[in-house]
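We both want to read discrete structure tokens more fluently, so let's practise on a single case. Would you write everything just below, so we can both look at the same thing?
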Amino acid sequence: MAALGWLTPRRRPATARSVLAGEASAEAARKTAQAAEPEAAAEPAAEALPEDFPVPGDDRAAAFFDLDNTVMQGAAIFHFGRGLYKREFFQRRELARFAWQQAWFRLAGVEDPEHMQDARDSALSIVKGHQVSDLMEIGEEIYDEYMAERIWPGTRALAQAHLDAGQKVWLVTAAPVETATIIARRLGLTGALGTVAESVDGVYTGRLVGEPLHGPAKAEAVRALAAAEGLDLARCAAYSDSHNDIPMLSLVGHPYAINPDTKLRKHARANDWRLRDYRTGRKAVKVGVPAAAGVGALAGGAAAAIALHRRRR
């Protein structure tokens, strides 16, 4: 019965650990953004935005984009797991677990805190004892292999509109901050707020600073970054697909629901937020699929991953 909790995610208020996670993420984001200039990205297709938004030259405004299923199809942590498996960081049993989690994410189209926590716990145990620099180098390769072709062009165009207006654009995600920073740089964005894994002398300890950057922690990270950067949140924009990000979306003056799940779509309509959906008519994720179909899809995802592994061997 515990698995049924994934179907009804609980919304939690900010806690001391949320605040710690948010502040740590904001500090890490500013350091990495100052250390390197973003790469130039390919010019995206034009996207229709209100003529007066974003406001050119408004340096007290910025844009905050959720990553999973907003900027990129699927979850970054799962794609990262696939790449680590290819490099023999873990065994077939863990691969099946990653495949099962990714299949659930695609089927349900929601980010349940307990489910995502389970995935991050798996990732933390895998990277424990590894050099941060080594994982960053591998992350670059994994982006090219599994993530580059999964970027939503429409969302990328929205981000470019803010960059063209002279504003900073940040990813805000529960994915590891190192992975998120790579993605942000490869897309030509300013930087990224992500989950901060503890490291000592450049080696991962297997622990987090605070908690995963999810739900209220995302809002705390945006709040901390805005204070450090001198931003006016009422002039900022935020974009997400998940109702779990309502705390972050509610912070800014220009919230957008992108590829929204059912709860976020309902909330956005009730609060007159703008909506955009870049999925095809046959949406890749649906909510409310019968349980039997869900179990079949999950098992199929794991089986397909293992079968692929066997063929390659």
Observations:
- Confidence is low (pLDDT under 50) at residues 1-12, 41-48, 282-313.
- Strands lie at 62-66, 168-176, 191-195, 197-200, 203-208, 237-240, 254-258, 274-276.
